[in-house]
């Protein structure tokens, strides 16, 4: 008999399963590859699966299957990342952001190392330089940049004293027309060298370029030379601006970041060197290793893997979208009368600015949570976890209350319903489809998903209880009715019918519906806290979280955090402030869209306003699905949906107590049916704890069918 593995957490969770089941689950985790490197658990040793006999498998088959379904493994490179994953996962909030610590260089793949390498490495065989990316560089930048260097060279030759820089620009014109497979070196010119005939050098493969003036080569004499002054006044500014334009454009295109690095180093280094120290030559495979410092050596202008590139832990997409936030704020508040742009453009910019701000808020929350204990992480998540959505909803309700327009409240209800339906159907469905294409069948923690599903049922029932109550006891009021049969006792065709809750001076609403709304708003957060206590304290074995350390033996690295706690706190507060400003601009300029658009306000709310702020979370869910960790992908959608019902809606109800608005917790029939059907379908799909791309396709298709229903639905009354 194989001895059982003891549990390091004590006996509070009951007896542990035998080592046979642990080995089988470890083997399954090895095959599935949870979150990166495979099967290197801290809590359980990895034992080969072949050590157990077939008869033993048959005896414990049911035990093995049950245990494997309820196991969730999280992989972390260090204690800080483990703390972030454990805190965020256990607390149930949605901000699953990228690494908050710098990953050791030796642990990264060769593809990632190439992204961060400087353009000064000479490879033995770079291959053919005739690639699509290099041709794209020639068409976008190469031809006009080379022509500009020729013009600057002509100007330098005209000045006579700038002739050395003219020869340098002439050489650089040929280099930037096609820089691939060429090298720019910094060579040291001996002081005894005279401006006579060129010397032959085996290193340079030919005569040394004659760009040197003896009187300008001594200590700081270079910067006092007449040719240098002419160059800094006439030649360098033009080329620096051109390279700056190339750098910004290539950086925004992301895949052309090598071109941005090339231009940045040219403007900051090459063009500021004495011309006699700059050597340009074409590399040959038969050349001996070059002596001297290599400044530039580029083989490829484009790399499709630059979507993984990060600056100080921030993804390059979030970095590129940050200027959009500044443009939105300046344009929105400086051009209030809409002289430069219209409301539609400002609304679009404000909505797009929410995406990078949501990313920065998530990164700040993850950084603080990773460097703090569980209590601090829980408070930060509870305070700022839904700040993106709540900021927009509250500003929209305030604007609707000031204008006396009920349409804003209906748009907020549509956005809440759209977030719920999208996170229940679209997010897990899309993750299943993309993950199922790479992995034939994926398994997830069905018991933890069952807890989230139970919370969803409870939250949906509580949120829509006042709506169902109003349907039963409300008075049906119609705006216009016509007798179809011309008989007073016959059938009537009525339009614009709704249930009136304000009959008899609002007795039904104020005496019955409103107390029910307040009761539900108290019970839902209480149920959420009970769910947290259930998963964190009394039934932690349901989640059974294992933090894996996947470093090779002997490789122990101290965690280098990208953002300190104070820096993360400052970024969190600034991002929240900018988020409030962008939400204010979005609500300020949404009114013309709602009044002039032919599209239903329902559709605008459930699509644009609901799903755009959740795009970073959708990307995170897809990444987890590709890594065959569907449990986290499902948790992302479930956590957002639970937060909408159990936290965001009660907070909005609490806000209406202190600041009266048109928001009432009574939804339209379309919202009720769509939400309930979505939750029922999701629970049916998640029952067996495994899925494939077909089940994901079903969820996505049902979501698009509901979108079609919202698209063709008439606008709500009052809009």
From TrEMBL:
It comes from the Eukaryota. Its main location: membrane. It is found in: Endomembrane system. Pfam families: Na_Ca_ex (PF01699), YccF (PF03733). One of its GO terms (biological process) is intracellular calcium ion homeostasis. It is a multi-pass membrane protein. The keyword Transmembrane helix applies. The chain crosses the membrane at residues 135-158, 236-259, 314-334, 340-362, 374-395, 415-437, 449-469, 516-536, 568-587, 599-619, 640-659, 665-686, 693-713. Residues 132-182 form the Inner membrane component domain. Keywords: Antiport, Calcium, Calcium transport, Ion transport, Membrane, Phosphoprotein, Transmembrane, Transmembrane helix, Transport. One of its GO terms (molecular function) is calcium:proton antiporter activity. One of its GO terms (cellular component) is vacuolar membrane. Residues 346-465, 568-710 form the Sodium/calcium exchanger membrane region domain. This is VNX1 protein. It comes from Chaetorhynchus papuensis. The gene is Vnx1.
């Amino acid at each position: 008999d194989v001895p059982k593995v003891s549990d390091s957490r004590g006996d509070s969770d009951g007896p542990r399963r035998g080592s046979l089941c642990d080995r089988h689950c470890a083997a399954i985790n090895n095959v599935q590859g949870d979150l990166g490197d495979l099967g290197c658990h801290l809590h359980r040793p990895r034992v080969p699966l072949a050590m157990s006999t077939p008869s033993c498998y048959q005896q414990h088959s049911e035990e093995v299957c049950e245990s494997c379904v309820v196991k969730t493994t999280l992989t972390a490179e260090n204690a800080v990342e483990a703390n972030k994953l454990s805190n965020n996962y256990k607390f149930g909030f949605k901000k699953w952001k990228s690494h908050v610590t710098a990953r050791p260089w030796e642990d990264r793949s060769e593809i990632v190392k190439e992204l961060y390498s400087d353009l000064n490495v000479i490879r033995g065989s770079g291959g053919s330089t005739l690639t699509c990316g290099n041709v794209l560089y020639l068409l976008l930048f190469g031809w006009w940049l080379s022509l500009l260097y020729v013009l600057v060279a002509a100007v330098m030759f005209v000045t006579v004293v700038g002739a050395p820089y003219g020869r340098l620009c002439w050489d650089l014109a040929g280099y930037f027309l096609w820089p691939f497979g060429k090298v720019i070196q910094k060579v040291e010119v001996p002081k005894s060298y005279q401006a006579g005939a060129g010397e032959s050098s085996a290193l340079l493969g030919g005569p040394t370029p004659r760009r040197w003036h003896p009187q300008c080569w001594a200590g700081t004499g270079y910067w006092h030379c007449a040719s240098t002054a002419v160059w800094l006044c006439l030649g360098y500014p033009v080329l620096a601006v051109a390279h700056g334009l190339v750098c910004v454009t290539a950086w925004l295109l992301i895949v052309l970041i090598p071109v941005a690095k090339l231009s940045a180093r040219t403007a900051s280094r090459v063009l500021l060197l004495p011309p006699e120290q700059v050597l340009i030559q074409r590399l040959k495979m038969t050349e001996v290793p070059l002596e001297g410092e290599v400044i530039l050596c580029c083989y490829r202008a484009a790399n499709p893997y630059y979507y993984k590139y990060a600056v100080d832990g921030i993804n390059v997409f979030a970095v590129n979208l940050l200027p959009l936030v500044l443009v939105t704020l300046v344009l929105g508040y400086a051009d209030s009368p809409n002289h430069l742009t219209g409301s539609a453009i400002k609304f679009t910019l404000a909505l797009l600015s929410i995406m990078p701000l949501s990313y920065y808020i998530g990164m700040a929350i993850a950084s603080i949570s990773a460097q703090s204990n569980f209590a601090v992480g829980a408070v930060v998540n509870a305070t700022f976890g839904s700040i993106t959505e709540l900021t927009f909803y509250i500003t929209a309700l305030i604007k609707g209350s000031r204008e006396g327009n009920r349409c804003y409240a209906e748009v907020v209800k549509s956005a809440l319903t759209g977030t719920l339906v999208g996170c229940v159907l679209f997010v897990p469905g899309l993750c299943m489809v993309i993950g199922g294409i790479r992995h034939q069948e994926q398994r997830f923690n069905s018991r933890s998903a069952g807890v989230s599903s139970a919370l969803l049922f409870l939250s949906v029932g509580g949120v829509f209880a006042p709506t169902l109550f109003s349907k039963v006891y409300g008075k049906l009021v119609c705006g216009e009715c016509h007798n179809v049969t011309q008989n007073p006792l016959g059938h009537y065709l009525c339009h614009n019918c709704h249930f009136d809750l304000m009959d008899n001076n609002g007795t039904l609403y104020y005496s019955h519906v409103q107390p029910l709304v307040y009761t539900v708003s108290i019970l839902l957060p209480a149920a959420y806290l009970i769910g947290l206590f259930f998963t964190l304290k009394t039934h932690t074995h349901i989640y059974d979280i294992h933090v894996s350390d996947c470093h090779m033996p002997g490789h122990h690295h101290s965690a280098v955090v990208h953002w300190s706690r104070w820096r993360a706190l400052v970024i969190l507060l600034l991002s929240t402030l900018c988020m409030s400003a962008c939400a204010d601009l979005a609500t300020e300029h949404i009114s013309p869209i709602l009044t002039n658009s032919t599209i239903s306000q329902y559709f605008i709310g459930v699509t644009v306003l609901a799903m755009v702020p959740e795009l970073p979370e959708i990307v995170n869910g897809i990444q987890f699905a590709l890594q065959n960790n569907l449990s986290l992908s499902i948790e992302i959608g479930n956590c957002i949906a639970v937060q909408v019902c159990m936290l965001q809606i009660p907070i909005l109800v609490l806000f209406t107590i202190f600041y009266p608005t048109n928001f009432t917790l009574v939804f339209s029939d379309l919202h009720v049916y769509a939400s309930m059907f979505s939750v029922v379908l999701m629970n049916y799909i998640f029952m067996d704890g495994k899925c494939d791309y077909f089940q994901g396709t079903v969820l996505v298709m049902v979501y698009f069918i509901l979108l079609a229903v919202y698209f063709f639905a008439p606008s709500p009354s009052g809009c």
